[in-house]
Amino acid sequence: MNLDFRQHPALLEHIVDTLLAGIFTVDAQGCFVAWNRGAERITGYSQQDLLGQPCSLLEGANCKGFAALTELMHATATPHVGICQQECKLLSKDGREVHIHGNLQLLYSPVVENEPTHVDGPSASIPLTEKSGHALKVIGAVGCFMDVSSLIHAHEKIEVLERQATTGFAFEELIGNSEPMQQVFRRLKLAADSDVTALLIGESGTGKELAARAIHKQSERRHKPFMAINCAAIPTELLESELFGHVKGAFTGATSDRAGLFEVADGGTLFLDEIGDVSPAIQVKLLRVLQEREIRRVGESAPRRVDVRLITATHRDLMQMVNDEKLREDFYYRIHVFAIRLPPLRERREDIPLLVDHFIRQLAASSGLSASHIDGIARDTLDVLVEYHWPGNVRELRNAIEHATVLASGDRLSYFDLPPEVRGASNVDLTACGLTSEQAQEKDRILQALRQVGGNRTKAATALGTSRVTLWKKISRYGIEI
Question: Which of 143, 154, 312, 360 could hold 104 in an S-S bridge, CB 3.0 to 4.6 Å?
Fold first, then answer.
């Protein structure tokens, strides 16, 4: 039995609505005439939202959506007998960037005799001529599209992994494909292949301890202990005991013998962070260890032999400290045998996309369900991160990504998920970052409620009929200053 859908339009409409693909039609001016359920599921826009609206509604700063549609419809050219295929991005109702791949077929109608052949204005239906010589005009278009975002994101991840595998982007836990980091990796490898005393120089948050661990893991000592201590965090009188150990009765509270870090790390590596903060007395004792390879526990006269590879680190100008007589010159030259400078993040901005991808995957693996839904970051949001000056360097970047994963409601980090200080330092147009008209209205409602209660978030949440936690998240998401 042949089924004529023209006699059963309701059945045809039901079939179209059950398709996973988005199907739509527009008129000659590029305004929506029909919009099926599949299109609603992909974009979040209902048919009621779009009927009579221009297709430019689904466009953002980085999402040109159906921009080519109106250009194609208003172009003066030979009619397209085939189907125009396009891959692009559109902006969903909740502000997400959706990658789509679709087909577009223009619809034509013969020009009626004596009908005007040209109408001025950008929305005019321009007459065309087919090969037979008959005059035609565009009366609309019908399109079909699929959401290919997951495929695009998967492909991007594969590209990142392939690039990482072929370019040597990492040295143990340090990540970077920039030339400054490649130089760092080369010097770290040289240090690892020898037993030289290394000095790591860099601002706070540049990864000095990670660099020290990388040297240890790549060295012949990797099967022995790696011990680390921040010299600036421990008072001088306690630091000596921590490093060299003590015997019972050496001082009040020394109720038993205790081995220091040099003994614990015997055969391995000891990392002393903020070496510029140690006292002259500790400098003398460390100098003896470096020269004689032996230590004395506090309260003990007999020396103990140790075999330890020493790595130190600082954010200070040690030579200036020598000139200011705050650091012994002989101690400086003994630890400054092989120096490695770790560049600040602002000097290697091209590494930020790699670091962001790494931190997202790392947090998703370690945070369980709280971050498992995050699989990427919006392009405009990544641009903000690349432009930021990062005074706290890589450590601050990781904290920013962790902050964003807590606030994120979708599967990709957005501008409004970033910490306020990062957002505040950018010149990004907020409307270009996915702030829809509904979100703008919600932001205005929150601002009005906060003004009415003098900034009291608990009272504002009650007035808005939401919880205090939800309100706090939205305040952070929209960058509202209280």
Answer: 143
- Measured CA to CA, the distance from residue 17 to residue 36 in angstroms comes to 5
- Whether the Cβ atoms of residue 101 and residue 45 lie closer than 8 Å to each other: no
CB 211 within 8 A of CB 174: yes
For 102-133, give one letter per residue: b (16+ CB within 10 A) or e: bbbbbbbeebeeeeeeeeeeeeebbbbeeeee
Half-sphere exposure of 361 (CA within 13 A, CB side): 10
User: Which of helix, strand or coil describes residue 412?
Assistant: strand
- For CATH 3.30.450.20, the residue range(s) in the chain are 5-147
d(CA 243, CA 224): 17
CA 227 to chain centre: 31
Give 19-24's long-range contacts (Cβ < 8 A, gap of 24+). 20/146, 21/144, 21/145, 21/146, 22/100, 22/102, 22/143, 22/144, 22/145, 22/146, 22/147, 23/142, 23/143, 23/144, 24/142, 24/143
Query: 11: which 2 tokens?
Result: 């059945």
Interatomic CA distance for residues 420 and 424, integer angstroms? 6
| pLDDT tens per residue across span 148-188 | 887 776 766 665 555 555 455 778 889 998 999 999 999 99
- What gap in Å lies between CA 277 and CA 196, rounded to an integer? 22
Q: What is the CATH T-level fold of the domain 5-147, as seen in this structure?
A: Beta-Lactamase (3.30.450)
Q: Which CATH number fits domain 199-335: 3.40.50.300, 3.40.50.620, 1.10.10.60, 3.20.20.140?
A: 3.40.50.300
The sign of the dihedral angle between the CA atoms of 240, 245, 250, 252 is positive
Angle between helices 280-292 and 236-244 (to 10 degrees): 20
Is the pTM for the entire model greater than 0.70?
Answer: no
Amino acid identity, position 418: L
**Interval 15-66: pLDDT, tens:** 666 667 888 888 888 888 888 888 888 888 888 888 888 877 776 545 555 6
Continuous segment of H or E residues that includes residue 101: strand 97-110
Closest CA to 439 of 401, 400, 399, 410: 410
Whether 23 and 38 have beta carbons less than 8 Å apart is answered as yes
